[in-house]
């Protein structure tokens, strides 16, 4: 699962406008999702992902 999550983020992120957000779910429910999101954010120098609820996350492309 972590590879699929990382690939989804990598595929969609370039499609965002400069001030766009990328978001997802299952952040706290599946450790693989949290690890993939946190790893992608760290590797690409993005602002840390933050969660808007116990399960949702987002990060801001403009700050990368």
Would you give an account of this structure?
With 64 residues, this protein is α+β, with helices and mostly antiparallel strands. The chain has one domain (2-63). The chain has helices spanning 2-12, 31-43, and strands spanning 21-24, 50-51, 57-60. It has a three-stranded antiparallel beta sheet, with no helix packed on it. The model has no long low-confidence stretch (mean pLDDT 81).
Which helices and strands, and how do they pair?
Blueprint: H1 2-12, E1 21-24, H2 31-43, E2 50-51, E3 57-60
Antiparallel strand pairs: 1-3, 2-3
Helix pairs in contact: 1-2
**Radius of gyration computed on alpha carbons:** 11 Å
Please write the string of helix (H) and strand (E) elements. Answer: HEHEE
Strand content: 15-25%
Q: How would a crystallographer describe the biggest sheet?
A: 3 strands, antiparallel
Between the first and last Cα atoms, what is the distance in angstroms? 24 Å
**Number of discrete helical segments:** 2
* Number of DSSP strand runs: 3
Shape: globular
What is the SS-derived class? alpha+beta
* Helix percent band: 25-40%
